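TA notes, week 10

Several of you asked for a full example with nothing omitted. So below is the full record: structure tokens for the whole chain, then the designed sequence directly under it. When grading your own attempts, check the secondary structure regions first.
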């Protein structure tokens, strides 16, 4: 079986090799944990975000930069393709690990989740396990973790701190913007899973998602980066699923426009909910558009639409 941590470590080490060019820094803590700062104190950038995204997806993705036409303006975008969507997205990339140690908080994603089994029921559902000796984690945080935090992470992954490798990327950073948009394919798979669809039937995936500019602090950027997927994320999946009528029903339910909160920038919705995620309709966390090809029947279904107007509002782009 593919080891997501072994794959992720290869990319992490390559990222260290090109630290100067990527405008990131490397630090080794006193307990031996290795950290890469991809935007907390360092500049980071587009290419750093590309490496972070590849680590998140355990290097099981072809990812490149593209462009997305929003009508009034063309913005950068990421285009990604994978032949291992369930392992890359759900066994590795899915941000399913909330890490809180005293005052430190970060969302953990990437290969190390497969060792910590966060969440355990997901790994049982996709029948995936990794027994690597090293753990590689991506932390979405504006603070670098210390020895106490890394010791807790290592313990959860059942490795020693010196075998722990973490890249830290804030939401309000260029690298952060890239890695969040690169979650587009995963967002569609997660929405399908939440609807009861057997995601193990997903064999191949492709997506193109615009990149958000930096619009403010982490909370505001959390809104604009999610809007890239919600309002203009276009996903394509190839599946092996015999019941095409049932499949058609799932495809119809996936896009974000099915949400009661659809139609305004996510930051506005979040603010109206008192910044309480539990008060936001979970159906919002989905791509704008999804197309699914069923390989046995030859049927292809599509649902949803892009909404550049809301994304332009979210970005706050002004003509001068």
């Amino acid at each position: 079986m593919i080891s997501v941590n072994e794959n992720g470590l290869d990319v992490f080490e390559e990222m260290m090799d090109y630290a100067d060019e990527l405008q990131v820094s490397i630090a080794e803590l006193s307990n031996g944990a290795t950290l890469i700062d991809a935007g907390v104190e360092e500049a980071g950038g587009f290419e750093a975000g590309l490496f972070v995204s590849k680590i998140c997806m355990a290097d099981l993705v072809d990812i490149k930069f593209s462009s997305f036409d929003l009508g009034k303006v063309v913005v950068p975008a990421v285009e990604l393709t994978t032949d291992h969507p369930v392992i890359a997205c759900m066994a590795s990339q899915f941000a399913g690990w909330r890490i809180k140690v005293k005052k430190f908080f970060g969302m953990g994603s990437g290969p190390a989740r497969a060792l910590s089994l966060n969440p355990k029921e997901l790994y049982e559902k996709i029948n995936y396990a990794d027994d690597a000796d090293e753990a590689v984690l991506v932390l979405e945080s504006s603070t670098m973790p210390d020895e106490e935090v890394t010791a807790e992470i290592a313990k959860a992954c059942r490795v020693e701190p010196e075998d722990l490798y973490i890249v830290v990327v804030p939401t309000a950073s260029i690298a952060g913007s890239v890695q969040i948009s690169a979650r587009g394919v995963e967002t569609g798979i997660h929405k399908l899973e939440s609807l009861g669809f057997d995601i193990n039937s997903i064999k191949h995936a492709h997506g193109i998602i615009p990149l958000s500019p930096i619009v403010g602090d982490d909370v505001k950027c959390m809104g604009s980066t999610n809007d890239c997927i919600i309002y203009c994320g276009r996903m394509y999946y190839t599946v092996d699923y015999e019941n095409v009528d049932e499949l058609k029903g799932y495809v119809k339910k996936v896009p974000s426009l099915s949400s009661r909160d659809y139609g305004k920038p996510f930051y506005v919705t979040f603010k109206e909910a008192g910044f309480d995620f539990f008060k936001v309709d979970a159906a919002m966390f989905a791509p704008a558009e999804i197309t699914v090809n069923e390989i046995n029947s030859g049927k292809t279904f599509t649902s949803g639409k892009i909404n550049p107007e809301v994304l332009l509002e979210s970005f706050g782009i002004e003509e001068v």
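Residues 39 and 146 are 16 Å apart (CA to CA). Use that as a sanity check on your answer.
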